[in-house]
Amino acid sequence: MPTPRELEMNRRDLMVVAGACAAISAAATGTRAQPAPVGKPVLSEVSFSVNGRRHQLELDTRTTLLDALREHLHLTGTKKGCDHGQCGACTVLVDGQRVNSCLTLAIMNQGAEVTTIEGLGGVDNLHPMQAAFVKHDGFQCGYCTPGQICSGVAVLEEIKAGIPSHVSADLTGAMTATEAEIRERMSGNICRCGAYSNIVEAMIEVAGG
Amino acid sequence: MRAFSYEKAGSPAEAAAAAAESPGAKFIAGGTNLLDLMKLQIEVPTHLIDVNGLGLDKIEPTSDGGLRIGALVRNTALAADERVRRDYAVLPRALLAGASGQLRNRATTAGNLLQRTRCPYFYDTAQPCNKRQPGSGCSAIGGFSRQLGVIGVSDACIATHPSDMAVAMRALDATVETVKPDRSSRSIPVADLHRLPGNTPHLETVLEKGELITAVTLPKPVGGTQIYRKVRDRASYAFALISVAAIVQRDGTGRIALGGVAPKPWRVEKAEAELPRGAKAAAAAMLAGAKPTDENAFKLPLVERTLDAVLAQAKG
Q: Hey, is the C-beta of B26 within 8 angstroms of any chain A C-beta?
């Protein structure tokens, strides 16, 4: 079995080939063809730390943080869902804040401290949020789960820090991890299996509610 | 995504000069809108100028009692700032009604103002769109237009400006500060930042080539009850069908700006004289001359009803 490392054609290559095939078939049938991507790739160096380990990478400037993590550092816990910031599957923590790793270029994160699901905890040392997701059955297929957990950890920190949300009745008061607050704050993480109610239970438990 | 070269700017003025020198250059800050559009090849910059780390991430008091918000202040940081929460409540309310926590952590104040429309035909590169490809036509007119604009629109484009934050900024009479490639700076009232589409919907702001927003200033607080009410298809993480930013004083006077209805945050100062007479009169004055499509004509009564609810809430 080839490991992901041995698979030479990555997702982008595949898309380019698929695009070229589509262009050829479109030209053959006389319909409007989209031009294939042109322009020479530009490489740039960047260093940042992931889960406490420093990495120095030379990357195509187009590489998102998500692709750097998955394709270059082989940290495949972080998932690619929509690749457009709509689903939250790619959520990681950058300098302690949750971000969509698909919507930031790797080279924009020079010097950053990135934490992925692998850095939160592993099989033998689960992060309390990971343990709570298992206990409360906070997932079915599991694809959105790394993003849900990274987001969940950050949400509880945001509440502790007093950052208000759309459903906070008082903008200036203390914030609490109520079900309504958690549902609103987690709205950037979509779960196709609909595990939402169990995710809320897991988060409320970790928040100490 | 098309290939591009990349540089980190050393100062705002250097960034502006660099952008003026390179015809295909774009600034990148949060990247949450630009990278999305680059992946779809709707935006195809050949050079990116990263303006992060230029010290434009501070919120400072101004000499006249207002606040100066750095262009790079993230939406989360702006919504969480104690002075903003206390004195300009409509602004955090609008910010928190938009996007998701992850996006707000990265999206910047200036980037929010400059984000592109979410018109589905702008996003669909297989369809004509005068904003994306000038002169190609507007697929939205006669198409799926439920989300789109009802006022300030033209025969060339009915796209809306998608920002919530900008609607609150408009109600607060915010001003945009910029630096130009020749190092001069200027102030532009947020009211004048965005252009109406007319025959040139691809020209969205009055900013010149290379001109960089460095800050947004808020005048001294005006008090009143400040409300942002957003009506959308989902309870969270959706763009507005319509929204109302309101600052209502005890005597019934106030300011109203609307989102989701026009190519820019929509405020008609003259119409605000109607506020003491109620939502029906004020909404009619704000939306005089509206040109809705069959699919989005519902937005006119929706504005009136939402404004009515907002005025009732303000009375307490």
A: no
